[in-house]
């Protein structure tokens, strides 16, 4: 693999302005021309051998001419979901580098005794008390609920872009199974009961440090009542009368597209 690295600044990727393949790492020579000598971090690439390199710029570092930032959230909307599911692809390497870069910022000191942590190949270890800290990965579920009329439930969250509807999602709580999370989130947010909960697909979702687990489920009881806290509206939609949907890089869009093509009807 060539000597290249991802450059991050806060929640954004930093790239030369002319770059079109945003999920590709940048040659280290190019980075040094722009920023001079920087601290490059290497992490295990997991699959193809070798390492993934990254640079974490201080938020106050001004960008040299010819460089720009793109927010990671914006980026995952334009990188195809298939590329992210396959962790061996360039998008998988970028998401791994970003997740580790965020974690390193938050794990400088031991959470138990406050000493400065040391790096090992996959973790950080406290030299004073021996506590080992691994990158945190927080499971979150997202579920496509369908009913007997061939409709799917889509909801508008108050944090979404106006008019955009998506699937019911939420974080798994401590001590909870994924199936319980699916049932609880659906009950809390729209007051529905579901059956036939089936796992479909997963995707790294580093906003922050999540692993998004996509499920399908069938409506088994109750009428829609939105919680009024997170959700502003939720409705059953026919596949040919859909509202605005989330970007192509999301698990949500991936599941909705599979449902439209009839893959989940049984
Ligand atoms: Zn310690």
As a percent range, the share of helical residues equals: 10-25%
> Would you count the extended β strands for me?
15
Order of helices and strands: EEEHEEEHHHEEEEEEHEEEH
Mean of all residue-level pLDDT scores = 91
CATH architecture descriptor name of the largest domain: Alpha-Beta Complex
State the domain count.
Answer: 2
Reported by name, the CATH topology of the largest domain is Nucleoside Triphosphate Pyrophosphohydrolase
Q: What is the number of helical segments per DSSP (H or I, 4+ residues)?
A: 6
The CATH class of the largest domain is Alpha Beta
The parts where pLDDT drops under 50 for at least 5 residues are none
Rg from alpha-carbon coordinates = 21 Å
Main sheet overview: 6 strands, mixed
Q: How would you explain this protein's 3D organization?
A:
The protein is of the alpha+beta class and 266 residues long. The protein folds into 2 domains: 4-106, Alpha-Beta Complex (Nucleoside Triphosphate Pyrophosphohydrolase); 138-260, Alpha-Beta Complex (Nucleoside Triphosphate Pyrophosphohydrolase). Helix content is 23%, strand content 33%. Strands 1, 2, 3, 4, 5 and 6 form a 6-stranded mixed β-sheet that branches. Strand 13 and strand 14 (209-221) form a beta hairpin. It is globular, with a radius of gyration of 21 Å. The N and C termini lie far apart (45 Å). The mean pLDDT is 91. Bound molecules: zinc ion.
In short:
By secondary structure, the protein is α+β, with helices and mostly antiparallel strands. The chain is built from six helices and 15 strands. Strand 8 and strand 9 form a beta hairpin.
